[in-house]
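Homework help thread (please don't just give me the answer)

Our assignment gives two proteins as sequence + structure token strings and asks us to describe the second one. The first is just a warm-up. Here they are:
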Amino acid sequence: MTTSLPASVDPTALQEILDGRWAHVRRDARENLRDPDFLPVYGEAMQEARDRVTRAAATLARSGRVGFGFPKEYGGEDDAGGSVTSVEMLAFVDLSLMVKAGVQWGLFGGALQLLGSKRQHDAYLRDVMSFDLPGCFAMTETGHGSDVQQLRTTCTYDPETQCFDLHTPHQAARKDYIGNAAKDGRMAVVFAQLISRGKNHGVHAWLVPIRDENGNPMPGVTIGDAGPKAGLNGVDNGRLTFDHVTVPRDMLLDRYGQVAEDGTYTSTIENETRRFFTMLGTLVRGRVSVGGSASSATKLALDIAVRYGDVRRQFAAPGEEREIVINDYLVHQRKLLPALATTYALHFAQEELVSTMHDVQTAVHVHGQEIDEHAQRELESRAAGLKVAQTWHATRTIQLCREACGGAGYLQENRLPHLRADTDVFTTFEGDNTVLLQLVAKGLLTGYRDAFGSLEGWGKVGFIADMVRETVLERTAARALIARLVDALPGRDEDDIPMLERGWQLKMFEFREKHALEGAIRRLRKNSTTEGMAPFDMFNDVQDHVLKTAQSHIDRIVLEAFVAGVDRTTDPAAKQLLDTVCDLYALSTIEADKAWFMEHGQLTAARAKLLTGTVNQLIKQLRPHIITLVDAFGIPAEWKAARILEEEADRQEAMAARDAELKAGVGEGTPEGTATDLEVAPAQ
């Protein structure tokens, strides 16, 4: 394989396409997020971290950069996409601050904005935006996390007092892991079962004061501290229980369900399950933000590891005195470059998702249009799938970067341990990843409902029936482009088609998704006709197959988003480089699952070997551009807070000077480090 890549590519041309639709938000963040409290402090105690992050949140509020997603009439910008993008940028500086801000202005403020009435907006929204009213989002319970519809906290209306009685019936119903609760929160959006006139109308949300102005718990409210965590020490996670707390009727966030003075319940959405998912669907912005923030952390880790690998030297070639930079070793390139390619792919998928979310939410909440339920369900499924992909990729890649930096990567001062600890919880908050994969898969299965005939049998299972969709999930926005590429494949033997043919790559991803989905359908149909098989067992028996289907679907939509991103790149050199990175993403993904492709007749043994060789060749082509690829992330140097980069730059200069001396025949002794100098200590 010969390379057609230019000798160099301007990273600003790449950054321009990566910055995308909300480039102005990214630019503003790079220029203005400069406060010292915005950066992590290594070795600080939990209380110190909480105090610093609280100060930083107040500073952020004063800067006016928290209002992107809020209505213009309250000082915001009605820009849902800008809101998510600003959170992604905040994740580069400190993930504790990102989560704190996400709780205050995303979850708490977002629930007030999207579930509440204008009267409630007038009363509280400005104070939420200014951080004068710190708040919490109290949904998760100790005994119920993913299954929100079955929360046990109750809120019962009494017509005589015209108030609700909010109650925690037992410890399993305690609100748990609640950000802002342990220290700062004065009000919470509390999710509970709404009971009126003896009937349960399902989960709704209320504004509930939890502390008075002096910081003391309100009557009936018990506040606990979740204590030390693995990471995110600047976030004051706490626990809330309610002992028959009185909540006035007008504190119900009643956009989708209202209770009259006499206790009569009304809603424009009669079906309880549909109403529940409509309410939760409006809060999808939080899930989109978590995925994007995980990708920011991944980019930062790769930036550190790639730059370190370009100056860190280990071992000399035979007959040479100068040691080799570790980025020149194929095994090191094999670690970093496929991960970098996947990070690029996920970036384009996130950009597409944020644009879709912005357009859907703007239509409803700014222009007053009716909710397009089909578009909303598609958005929720895409948000769930990409959150899974981005957070698991972050967990794997940050650990990989830590190892790629050796002992230095274990030191807090080099940022990687912070990133690893702070992102670990991302795989389980805003939706456990395995549960979210099932959500994606159930949407796909429902789209193929005609293949089942009747939904009798396995369709009666509650957690499937609740997710029933009326339409097939849409193909991606790039579908017309993708179809052209696939249709352009030459009509010859599959083994003769070059692996760098984009249509072949897309066809492989499509085949895997389609085959996995059809296989899951066949197994479910078989189980539905098995006499005596319980409804739960019908689905549980094929759960592994269902998750494979969802994962294949996510990989396919990510690739299609990357292909579309390459297609709209106008700079020729940047487009060539992105095209090669896209090749690496596609082929390394196929390589990682080549056993499946071989089992299903899509790769011969010889072609599987060729696949690995092609990936290696792509990696060699991209090696000279590895710094350019991380430069394009546009992460300001001061945001990285990694001592390793400063030290290695100094060390590189010293070694260059030493090499010059040796070449000139001056100096004596052995160059620093030899082939026997194996680094085994945690720090040097």
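The one we have to describe:
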Amino acid sequence: MANQDEQFKKVISHAKEYGFVFPSSEIYDGLSAVYDYAQNGVELKNNIRQYWWKAMVQLHENIVGIDAAIFMHPTAWKASGHVDAFNDPLIDNKDSKKRYRADVLVEDYVAKIEAKIEKEVAKAEKRFGEAFDKEQFVSTNPRVLEYKATADAILKRLARSLENENLADVKALIEELEIADPETGSKNWTDVKQFNLMFGTKLGASAESAMDLYLRPETAQGIFVNFLNVQKTGRMKIPFGIAQTGKAFRNEIVARQFIFRMREFEQMEMQFFIKPGTQKEWYEEWKQTRLKWHLSLGMGADNYRFHDHEKLAHYADAAADIEFKFPFGFKELEGIHSRTDFDLGNHEKFSGRKLQYFDPEENKSYVPYVVETSIGLDRMFLAVLSNSLQEEELENNTSRTVLKLPAVLAPVKAAVLPLVKKDGLPEVARNIVDDLKWSFNVDYDEKDAVGRRYRRQDAVGTPFCITVDHDTLKDDTVTIRHRDTMEQKRVKINELKDIIQQEVDMRTWLMKM
């Protein structure tokens, strides 16, 4: 755990030092669990969003996008169940006065058990070398099986208690496991209570006439209330999907782990409308499709796993998370949910408007079922950033910090560096920038020795550095250096665009799906 904590601290420090993420309102000592995306962060975030949008909308003929308002009529949140059921189970420590999510305390306890399993696997792998069969070891080793059985039993009991709203048993579980306050070690806990996560606000010219509203806690409901508008104007036939990205807001009392859990965050969601009775097949289809999207970025198949929900949300008949191995362990990155007809059915009931699809093949109308894919953009940002940050020992007894971002997502695709600030080299370099900037986000850097400039670009994840030297003036060639291998070669200036394009083109990456 210590190594994980150290790695995570490095990620947070790197994010600030190199212009990815800043604490919000930092000159006023910041605002808890609220962050600003800096100059490199906003580019990386935009690139992740575009990579998702192209895969989800542009490459699917039967999926379209919308951008619904953050403010919605308050009855929409009553219909969706958020007013009555959008709660977190919270527990206070009487000694430290700190508040925690009860379910997260238990999940963190289980994560420590899973860390023990990984430790056993690592020891066995070292002992047996190439002959090691991880799958067989995990399924037969008595100690690993005991750990897994313990973890499964704890999670099942937690899920059952939460589903039955048996908060007393959640507290009992925490006490039986002897879970202590992470900061003080105290085990003196209050009862568990439910806390609604929605932010309230007002709409109106005066306090007397103002309407009570909520900042949306998810983006999905904006899609559901627009289902019929999109279906009719787009002449959409089932099955079809509606996608959107946008801000959501949750009053997370126990927000933590940097940008993993924030009060203001961004979601990328798609609601796929289907014929009732086909949800099981589409649910499995979208689970695999979404995993392929993640794997296309080349961040390592071992860093992903599916986690099927024991406790289902009030709207779901099946649900699974794609979990990613963050520096603090496997945590939810994306959810795939079979939402049945709960949302459209409830909005139909509360609004008094029909939200049905007329199926010409069956010659009847029905309320469609829905399969949802929902990914946190900020969590995806953290997954990419933390997975990419590496410290490398080099052959000349030096080291470098390098951000090995998937090139398609890198904030800056190439940096153009004149070897010296004289002899006409800056002018040639500027001309190269002026040509490439129409196709890519490129940087110009002339400060410090070229080696130091390489290190600076490595740290922000720039895939290519292009150096203009005195030979460039003679033969129109430059040195192009690859971030990951540090390999350098001479190429013609007019070849640069094609070389960069091959590495950063979305088509190349998405074809891996």
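TA reply:
I won't write it for you, but here's a hint about the kind of observation we're looking for: The longest helix spans residues 102-128.
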